[in-house]
Amino acid sequence: MSEITNFRGETSPSAPQDLADSEVRELILRVGARVRKARELKGVPRRVVSELSGVSPRYLAQLEAGEGNISIGLLQRVAVALDHRIEWLIGEEDPWTSEVLRFADHYKAATAEMRQKALDALNPKPPEQLRAQRVCLIGLRGAGKSTLGSMAGQALKVPFMELNNEIEEHAGMPVSEVVALYGQEGYRQLESQAIGRVIATHDALILGVAGGVVSEPETFKTLLANFHTIWIKASPEEHMERVRGQGDTRPMAGNPEAMDQLQQILNNREELYARAQAQLDTTGRSLQASAEDLVELIKTNGFVEE
């Protein structure tokens, strides 16, 4: 059996070698390295640490070299002598580079008011509180988001807003001109900014957004976190008919493959739309029936308080 030296310079049998654990060895090395670094950073000779802690200079040298297995009680005395906390010496976080430990130091020195502000910042509100009473309708163009959203808003006595209208008002030009001038990337940036303004100024509303909002990961993430989202869906055929019924012939004009393209868009976005908290299929339903379904869906899920 091998022997180790205690803090008085005495020897005693060590535990059997086969019980040695690599993690224990790493801990001993880590503690030694940190004791040495703490002492050197303070410019304190080993002799002074010995006098303050009661641990022999010889054993301190072995400890710093990772060759001594110090008891918790003695390590605490060394930590006090170095004006350190014992957890700094044994923890996995490096006390000189760790943001976690740096925050802990600031937290302990802060006032009660500052501590509460820090806790509020680090502990986000539950999803229900973040979403407040904001409802967002997502889905392909022609799903009925605008019409159904407006009807539901009236029934629930909360405002309805089209995000594109907010974008146009802020940009001072129609969305078509925004896209023409700044491209899709510019439009998406304005879209993201508009959502931020809505969140900041409304705790209760129904919002209708463009079908492609889900294609921007960060923007969609913001929507999911701050709105109760509902996917308004319908069959591709009804989507196309509704767009045509609104007087928009662009999807069909000179494009015999328009339906296939619409189906492809739906297939590409279906998984994203499905991340909504709820879904409303309006296929084969009248406008009034769909509006009633939407209101009931919002009430049942508690998205808006009555």
Would you mind describing this structure in some detail?
The protein has 306 residues and is of the alpha/beta class. The chain folds into two domains: 3-92, Orthogonal Bundle (434 Repressor (Amino-terminal Domain)); 128-300, P-loop containing nucleotide triphosphate hydrolases (Rossmann fold). Helix content is 58%, strand content 10%. It has 15 helices and seven strands. It has helices spanning 22-42, 46-53, 57-64, 72-81, 86-90, 99-109, 112-122, 127-131, 145-156, 163-171, 175-201, 217-226, 236-245, 258-273, 287-300, and strands at residues 3-5, 11-13, 133-138, 160-162, 204-208, 228-233, 278-281. The strands form two sheets. Strands 4-5-3-6-7 form a five-stranded parallel beta sheet, sandwiched between helices. Strands 1-2 form a two-stranded antiparallel ribbon. Helix 9 (145-156) crosses helix 15, helix 10 packs across helix 11 (175-201) and helix 11 (175-201) packs parallel to helix 12. The protein is elongated, with a radius of gyration of 32 Å.
Strand arrangement within the widest β-sheet reads: 4-5-3-6-7
Mean pLDDT: 81
According to CATH, the fold-level topology of the largest domain is Rossmann fold
CATH homology group of the largest domain: P-loop containing nucleotide triphosphate hydrolases
Shape summary: elongated
* Beta-strand fraction estimate: 5-15%
Helix and strand arrangement:
Blueprint: E1 3-5, E2 11-13, H1 22-42, H2 46-53, H3 57-64, H4 72-81, H5 86-90, H6 99-109, H7 112-122, H8 127-131, E3 133-138, H9 145-156, E4 160-162, H10 163-171, H11 175-201, E5 204-208, H12 217-226, E6 228-233, H13 236-245, H14 258-273, E7 278-281, H15 287-300
Parallel strand pairs: 3-5, 3-6, 4-5, 6-7
Antiparallel strand pairs: 1-2
Helix pairs in contact: 2-4, 9-15, 10-11, 11-12
